[in-house]
């Protein structure tokens, strides 16, 4: 039984390709998506493998085996940690002003709120409501994302890609932006700009509009397969790979149990669930790790922020 929990935010700093392994449409290598929402996800199984490598490099084989489970004889005992699939929280969308906006939706925020409550984290915000598909909520009527006049958001507009939205400033959106910026994005100097941008440039859309952007706003890259003998492009070697764009934010649950042990073995000095979670938080928080495919082309770099109840 997993007794302790923490939130793990994954902030993409390069395109990420967590492959689905099957192609139905024109994209040959699509990313993983959730069945009922079609939102991009990072499967927990893929995350666990990548995070095990990071943990092993920092903490060594012995502690890694105790927490993640034995690598060679997996039937001896299970690991003491699990990672849920990471769901999308924020998605970057090109804006007419200020380069891009961090976009989210009521459903994405409700899921984040539920996960945070499971981890017993303090929450000072409620999920805002968006009245229709033409409306968006922003942190302030003074946001530089906006254009037009009217004051207090009235008469102001925001353009994302080719769609124009009527704007309403909402205090809850400002609270969400500050809460996320202070927890989901690292405090190191290199991330300072993005923390401050998130506080100013968070936009809440309807679930319908958010779904449109996470379905159509991904990066689709053409690749050419090279023939090993000729060194030139293979006939019919053109294929397309889909990536989650940089600046997207995902969240996963980190679940910890007491250390498990092989049947018949001594159970003295086993790690408690609190000790397992503490080791994971201290080792993984602040790390930049590689997940998914195309690692040699710089894909899959994410910055981890692991947040637990203090």
TrEMBL record:
GO biological process: defense response to virus
Keyword vocabulary terms for this entry: Antiviral defense
Database matches in PANTHER family: CRISPR SYSTEM CMR SUBUNIT CMR4
Protein known as: CRISPR type III-associated protein domain-containing protein
Alphabetical list of Pfam families matching this protein: RAMPs
Cited InterPro entries: CRISPR-assoc_RAMP_Cmr4, RAMP_III_fam
Positions of the CRISPR type III-associated protein domain: 10-302
Superkingdom per UniProt: Bacteria
């Amino acid at each position: 039984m997993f007794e302790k929990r923490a939130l793990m935010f994954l902030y993409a700093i390069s395109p990420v390709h967590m492959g689905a392994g099957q192609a139905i449409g024109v994209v040959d290598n699509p990313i993983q998506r959730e069945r009922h929402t079609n939102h991009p996800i990072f499967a927990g199984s893929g995350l666990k493998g990548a995070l095990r490598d990071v943990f092993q490099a920092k903490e060594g084989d012995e502690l890694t085996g105790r927490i993640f489970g034995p690598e060679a004889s997996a039937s001896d005992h299970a690991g003491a940690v699990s990672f849920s699939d990471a769901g999308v929280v924020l998605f970057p969308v090109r804006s007419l002003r200020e380069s891009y906006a961090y976009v989210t939706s009521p459903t994405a925020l409700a899921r984040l709120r539920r996960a945070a409550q499971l981890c017993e984290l303090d929450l000072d915000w409620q999920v805002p409501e968006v009245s229709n598909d033409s409306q968006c909520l922003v942190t302030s009527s003074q946001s530089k994302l906006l254009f037009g006049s009217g004051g207090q958001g009235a008469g102001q507009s925001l353009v994302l890609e080719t769609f124009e939205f009527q704007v309403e400033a909402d205090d809850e959106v400002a609270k969400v932006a500050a809460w996320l910026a202070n927890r989901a994005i690292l405090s190191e100097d290199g991330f300072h700009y993005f923390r401050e941008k998130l506080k100013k440039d968070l936009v809440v859309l309807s679930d319908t509009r958010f779904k449109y952007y996470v379905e159509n706003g991904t990066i689709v890259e053409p690749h050419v397969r090279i023939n090993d003998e000729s060194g030139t492009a293979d006939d019919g070697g053109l294929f397309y790979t889909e990536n989650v764009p940089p600046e997207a934010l995902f969240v996963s649950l980190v679940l910890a149990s007491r250390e498990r042990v092989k049947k018949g073995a001594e159970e003295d000095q086993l790690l408690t669930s609190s000790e397992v979670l503490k080791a994971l938080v201290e080792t993984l928080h602040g790390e930049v790790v590689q997940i998914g495919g195309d690692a040699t082309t710089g894909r899959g770099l994410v910055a981890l922020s692991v947040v637990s109840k203090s």
